[in-house]
Specification:
- It is built from 16 helices and 17 strands.
- With 520 residues, the chain is of the alpha+beta class.
- The strands form four sheets. A five-stranded antiparallel sheet has the order 2-1-5-4-3. It has a five-stranded antiparallel sheet with strand order 7-6-10-9-8, sandwiched between helices. Strands 12-14-15-17-16 form a five-stranded mixed sheet, covered by helices on one side.
- The mean pLDDT is 89.
- It binds adenosine-5'-diphosphate.
- Adenosine-5'-diphosphate binds at residues 420, 424-425, 428, 453, 455-458, 466, 471-473, 478, 483-489, 512.
Length: 520
């Protein structure tokens, strides 16, 4: 309608407000020219002479230069839409069109526009989504890479990347927390592994498919072969252990059993357990060879003590019966001497036995500063009689760091060691004058006892056994010496408590030298 007004206006500009009939040809709309008084100078659709002065669109056009209204045309009896424009002070150009036609055209145009907008929107939406998707996908891929790499998350997004920066901060914190936790777990795991690997109990964990999940160093060293394999029976080299595992897998019942491995001569306390919640089997083997040995020694020890006591006891019984029937005073005296000797022997056995028990039961050392001179003097004075009887010559050498001769020692235990060594040097000596060199030396770390004699010496074959309990060298040579076979084992026990060392130098011509070195 505005276009039509423009055309009319141009027409008027060229021709003036004349030849109005020509207007019919230049626009298909109804054109009305109204003058200032409301008089209809021209109407392309009717010959109305009705005054249009108060038509709303005309009033508005004269007043505001443009006017607009929709109403039922009283001239054409049809709903029309009017658009008026002031041409000059005197005229208004009015263009009218059928409201229905216009409405229809507006509707059609609107529809086309709406459809166009919708299509455009859909297109934009899809494009936007694709671009956005790619954008987020790229960013998320980067994030995923960082998270998967397990590395510390660094700054990846600038602050202006508003959409993701928040999300990235959360991921970054989460990743950094994870890394910290993983580090902690790794530390804990390595600690556990260290503990797991150093404990002397051998441990094996197997899953329900007979595969080895875990094993500690002790198990690997003691029971694995070099063959590559995942299943327990491929790796464990001893049949007995394989059988035990098989039993555990079949029965699923806890097992506690002692197992002796023939090939290594070792005895193990084995325990097997099925953990139903985790679905694996745990097998542990503890080496109890030592305690088994100890048990055997204890048993042997008790039977030896009884045996050793039985001989003098039988002798005493026999000679006492003989004594009752004997009238000869000389014979009586000799029987009584024999009884006495046997009692002495029993006393020796019991004393040594008690000493050994005492040393064994008090494994802790009772260390305090004591005079080395005093220790040696006390030991020698206890043995005064035998030293005199056997013409023993004792050479003493004492060398301590402090002049007063005080050293930190367990006095009682050191006295037992020195006494037993001197006793042996006297007992196993067939010289007219047994000579014993006793040397007590102190260094910064050690205290050393050396007892050297000119006695009968010890053969090489006996050297390895003389520290065993009740071991006595060839009875024929030593039976009359009244020993119990416990003296050196007591010395060894004490040296072990001290974490010390024994050196033995001996041969059957030069005699014996025993050197005991203990930590101060
Ligand atoms: P016991 O002296 O009571 O028999 P020991 O354990 O002290 O027991 O000694 C074990 C054995 O070692 C002795 O029976 C003896 O044959 C030998 N023996 C120990 N000391 C000496 C020594 N100084 N000289 C020679 N033989 C020794």
């Amino acid at each position: 309608m505005e276009n039509s007004s423009d055309v009319v206006e141009s027409f008027f500009n060229l021709n003036g407000v004349n030849n109005l009939e020509k207007l019919k040809t230049i626009s298909k709309n109804r054109i009305t020219i109204i003058d200032k008084s409301g008089y209809v100078k021209y109407d392309s659709a009717s010959d109305t002479k009705e005054s249009h002065k108060f038509r709303q669109e005309v009033l508005e056009a004269f007043k505001y230069s443009e006017g607009f209204s929709v109403r039922e045309s009283s001239t054409l009896n049809e709903k029309l839409i009017y658009y008026s424009r002031r041409y000059n002070e005197n005229y208004v150009i009015r263009v009218a069109d059928s409201y229905e036609v216009l409405e229809q055209s507006i509707r059609t145009q609107l529809l086309i526009k709406i459809i166009t907008y919708i299509i455009l929107n859909i297109f934009l939406f899809i494009a936007y989504k694709l671009i956005l998707r790619k954008y987020f996908f790229d960013k998320l891929t980067n994030m995923r890479k960082v998270v998967e790499s397990g590395k510390k998350a660094k700054e990846l997004y600038l602050e202006e990347d508003k959409d993701l920066v928040e999300f990235w901060h959360v991921i970054k914190d989460w990743q950094n927390n994870n890394i910290r936790n993983i580090e902690k777990l790794k530390e804990e795991k390595s600690k556990l592994n260290q503990i797991f690997s150093v404990i002397d109990i051998s441990i094996l964990v197997i899953d329900e498919k007979e595969k080895i999940i875990s094993s500690n160093r002790s198990f690997e060293i003691n029971f694995f072969n070099d063959i590559h394999g995942e299943k327990y029976y491929e790796k464990i080299k001893y049949l007995k252990i394989n059988r035990l595992v098989k039993e555990l897998l079949l029965e699923k019942e806890p097992i506690t059993r002692e197992l002796h491995i023939q090939e290594t001569g070792k005895t193990y306390l084995t325990k097997g357990r099925y953990d139903e919640s985790k679905g694996f089997y745990i097998l542990s083997l503890k080496d109890i060879t030592m305690s088994k040995e100890r048990e055997k020694i204890e048993k042997r020890f008790i039977s030896n003590v009884s045996h050793e006591l039985k001989t003098p006891l039988t002798n005493i019984k026999g000679y006492l019966i003989a004594l009752e029937e004997e009238n000869d005073p000389m014979m009586k005296k000799s029987f009584l001497d024999i009884v006495n000797n046997n009692i002495l022997k029993m006393e020796n056995i019991i004393m040594d036995f008690l000493n050994l028990q005492k040393v064994e039961s008090q494994k802790a050392l009772n260390i305090y500063p004591c005079s080395v001179h005093e220790i040696l003097d006390e030991v020698i004075s206890d043995m005064e009689n035998i030293i005199k009887d056997k013409n023993v010559k004792i050479n003493k050498k004492i060398d301590t760091l402090e002049e007063d001769g005080f050293v930190n020692l367990d006095k009682e235990k050191i006295k037992i060691v020195i006494k037993n060594l001197i006793e042996n040097s006297i007992n196993y000596n067939d010289k007219e004058i047994p000579i014993i060199d006793i040397s007590l030396e102190e260094s910064n770390k050690h205290f050393t006892i050396i007892v050297k004699d000119n006695g009968i010496g010890i053969s090489d074959k006996d050297k390895t056994h003389i520290f065993d309990r009740f071991y006595r060298v060839d009875k024929a040579r030593t039976s009359n010496k009244g020993g119990t076979g416990l003296g050196l084992s007591i010395i060894k026990e004490i040296t072990d408590i001290y974490a010390g060392k024994i050196d033995l130098i001996s041969n059957e011509t030069d005699g014996t030298e025993i050197k005991i070195r203990v930590l101060k």
